[in-house]
Amino acid sequence: xxxxxxxxxxxxxxxxxxxxxxxxxxxxxxxxxxxxxxxxxxxxxxxxxxxxxxxxxxxxxxxxxxxxxx
Length: 70
Fold this sequence. Notes:
Layout: H1 3-6, H2 18-27, H3 29-35, H4 37-55, H5 60-66
Helix pairs in contact: 2-4, 3-4
């Protein structure tokens, strides 16, 4: 939904990337407190590693789009 569609519903925009979502999780004290600090830190650590692995991949779309261009 665009801002106009959300109107006064107090809905937040979802994060655009996994990296943004992870950064947001670090700032959310409620999640850390609910799971316990150790579990929370390991979760974010695992998801950070997952994001790093994901962003290093070249998709088939990228190959098709850019291989001949460069």
